[in-house]
Amino acid sequence: MSSLVWYVAYGSNLSTTRFSCYLRGGQPPGAARTYPGARDRSLPRDDKALWIPGGIYFATQSHVWGGGRALYDPDVPGTAAARAYLITVGQFSDVLAQEMYRQAAADLDLAEIATAGRAQIGDGRYETLIYLGHDEQAPMVTFTAPWAVQDVPLLSPSATYLQVLGRAWARLTGGITGKQPSIWPVFREPARRGRPSRLRASWPPNRATPDQQNCGASQPEDRATCPR
């Protein structure tokens, strides 16, 4: 197993400035938490924009941003924008520990994930590792919750969190080609008694325009703020 790994980020860590706080320590603008940083405070050796299969949704309360936090479901139809950072396995382990509000302790063993496809190292919201492929440098791995989007109550993100995501996404998609840009895929809300299954975007209805709720955006500034 390589000593390096591509950490594939899909939430606020789409922002390189925000991600640097996980490595060097600090408090990102708008966040309610100061991060201790990694044991190895070196910046990533490289980073790149890419599309990953699946979708992003918002659920569980974020103590950093308020509102729902971004989570990844690889089984949702579609693709999501992501940024991959080439870091050491130790740094990856420390990033995950900080996401779980723990102190960094030991390196994760990623040796079997390429074969298994995923590995659950705990029951927490960011303790399921997902293997997303391998390039000539290192494997590509992200982490998310053990549940699927339909298994958890959805929670709209805070305005501050959306602003961070929107700005990072707008910069990111300039480096991705070949697909129609979008931030967050629409997911299908499960059917409930007396109501059929329906499509729903995780966006506060009282803050979005009808076009944004229906994802009918046609202008670049609309696409940068509208979930798909």
Structure commentary:
The chain is α+β, with helices and mostly antiparallel strands and 228 residues long. It has a domain at 4-151: Hypothetical upf0131 protein ytfp (Roll). Helix content is 20%, strand content 26%. It has six helices and ten strands; from the N terminus they run βαββββααβββαββαα. The protein has helices spanning 16-24, 89-99, 113-116, 159-172, 210-213, 220-223, and strands spanning 4-9, 46-53, 55-61, 68-73, 79-88, 118-120, 128-134, 139-144, 187-189, 198-200. The strands form three sheets. A six-stranded mixed β-sheet has the order 2-5-1-8-7-6. The N and C termini lie far apart (37 Å).
Number of helices: 6
Q: Helicity range of the residues?
A: 10-25%
What is the name of the CATH architecture of the domain at 4-151? Roll
| Helix/strand structural class | alpha+beta
| 3D shape | globular
End-to-end separation: 37 Å
Parts with pLDDT < 50 across at least 5 consecutive residues: 180-228
Please render the helix and strand layout as text.
Blueprint: E1 4-9, H1 16-24, E2 46-53, E3 55-61, E4 68-73, E5 79-88, H2 89-99, H3 113-116, E6 118-120, E7 128-134, E8 139-144, H4 159-172, E9 187-189, E10 198-200, H5 210-213, H6 220-223
Parallel strand pairs: 1-8
Antiparallel strand pairs: 1-5, 2-5, 3-4, 6-7, 7-8, 9-10
What is the gist of this entry?
By secondary structure, the protein is α+β, with helices and mostly antiparallel strands. It is built from 6 helices and 10 strands.
Keywords summarizing the entry:
228 residues; alpha+beta; Hypothetical upf0131 protein ytfp
